[in-house]
């Protein structure tokens, strides 16, 4: 009877598939893909996003995911090359005054909005004023604080028209800063500094971000947005460099579950996935080989230390003991499967920045552990009187749980410290940290812009995200001095001195620098891994291929 | 019957009010607010946003405000997806859940029903045992195991169906199939039991004695009474597939409201979570009513009590 044959076939299939997933090291390599040299006939790229963009208004959104979509829909004065370096965007050139406080940008006369209207300097003035205007209620309005009066406008102390941005003529924009900001060109690539098309916002109000109403100036324009499912972007023929944009369409699939992202890739539905789970890396490496891309990312995972309360308050020796007892190489290799790099500073590697790596990092692991035990005893702890503390982290990520368990085990084995892991919802962790309740806590940060300050600001006295409560006048002074420098090297020198101070104080415990983890089809070209992990579809194209 | 229906509908209002109140209280009791973000907002702006959403008002006033809007069918703006209303999100997501849930129930009834009848007709044969073994497997294996396995086999290995997304019929098959699994198994067991019971009754014996062919007996006489237990199962099951498809939606990346529900809860999107809770509550009440009415229509022994 046919009804009897069916279940066995299905069960056999399930059994086979199950074995495959159970033994990652013996994964069958995926069928080879033969890549040609000609462009594929159909230039449609499908990529994944880790979460749904909450809304597509460059002034209002703050999340990393939305930035990816904004990179395709809009373009600022500057933009990013495939390698992540800053290149001219709407502005073709710019000059800086001697004091570094006044920047003049020359806009491309050929720059257009997606509806064909000319893009002018006034569009930037309008957009930036809108972002800082308290009436707009932009969650990250303080991002514009480097611009003269930016913070005053955001807090309502000054009207928006006093913001330091002026249209000198249709194609010349003058930007005045409150302090020298050598990283301004990089900052200008961020979504909250994009130009906006005022007539659309005036006409449609909040609804201007809907596909039918949106007018944008980037390489692509919004075709469809199904919240929580997918966004479809079509090539913008009015983009000034449209001749060099090869993709006709980009589809972003929202897939929160990272294993599901990888499944979509294996099934051939997407050619580029945002994030692969660290725990599955060995399996995908053996199955997909070079289609797995792991590369440095501008972020650091730290264990935050609450220095406002015992046992860590005023106890540098204890903080150092915990710092030294962590074997970062082991964590990067064995726990993260290579998707992370040992960290000894808050700032990840940045060209030109002399990271102040502590001396002890040169020691062998056993020598470090010996030193850690000495500090532990010096702090007044021993086998009979062990440190008992709690580490607070957010729940929901298997990789993160494994890593913290490993760190706690290292503390236990090297020092005899008894630390327990307390996992909670991210929202609760945010609140607990703000109230300075946890003793040790998950403290990760992705740099907002390519400058050490984005990491170092967090230990500044009184800074709202200073979760550890660290306060050191010498540190604050060094940061202030750095912000007054017009020369980048001088700036870096002060920042490195400040960072060295906080390292020496063991004001936090750096564990690893983040890594991006993508799956990319071999026939997708025109992209490169970069430390800001922003890969503009503008440069990407698909080659002819057999197999998927 | 009309009076009965009316009474049930009116009786549902206090229940819904209770659900809305509980949802409101639980959500506001959870630590962390909708606008607590990793990047701390300027206090002025945070206050302004909270004012926009009435979060700066005393709780009782927020509650009355919410109930007032609810009475007009307005579930309010979503906090997480600013500029989008909860009504809009539900209007976008609910049809997806209906399509997936409805198809799953259809599959469960057709496949499970036939399995049950076949098993009953070949009682204690090898076929019966393997079908019922399969049913036990279907009930025991959770959906979050079935769904990725279906993707592995049909999307990744065989490339027959898409692994996720939403669009045409092809996008419906795997999620509906995965969701139908436990229900199919349950229906099969239920149907086998009720068919056996009916087949043993005297009127069937009479029919057989008259020499009617088995096919005619099954279709004309046995099927209708055997289906009765299924009806009472159908109401909760339909509510179950529609509200319980959160895992399926996550695995297949479907834009249904179950996903809004979970991300909404994590992001403290009060209005979105309350809106969906009330909708789910109303749905379950409505389906239960339908079942009771359906039962009365199919079984002449059931009467509406005063």
Describe this structure in words.
The complex is a heterodimer of chains A (548) and B (306). Helices cover 31% and strands 22% of the residues of chain A. Chain A has 548 residues and is of the alpha+beta class. Chain A is globular and about 75 Å long. Chain B is mostly helical and 306 residues long. Helices cover 76% and strands 0% of the residues of chain B. In chain B, helix 1 runs antiparallel to helix 12, helix 4 packs antiparallel against helix 9 (214-243) and helix 10 (246-252) packs across helix 11 (257-266). The mean pLDDT of chain B is 87. Chains A and B meet through helix 1, helix 7 and helix 13 of A and helix 2, helix 4, helix 5, helix 6 and helix 10 of B.
Alpha-carbon distance between the two ends of chain B? 10 Å
Reported for the largest beta sheet of chain B, the result is: none
The low-confidence runs of chain A, each spanning 5 or more residues with pLDDT under 50, are 1-24
What is the terminal-to-terminal distance of chain A? Answer: 37 Å
Largest interface: A-B, 58 and 57 residues
Indicate the proportion of strand residues of chain A.
15-25%
- What series of H and E elements makes up the topology of chain B? HHHHHHHHHHHH
Count of DSSP H/I helices of chain A: 16
Shape of chain B: flat
Calculate Rg of chain A over CA atoms.
25 Å
- Enumerate how many helices of chain B there are, as a single number: 12
Which percent bin holds the helix content of chain B? Answer: over 70%
Report the count of strand segments of chain A: 20
**DSSP strand count of chain B:** 0
Mean pLDDT of chain A: 91
Main sheet properties of chain A: 7 strands, mixed
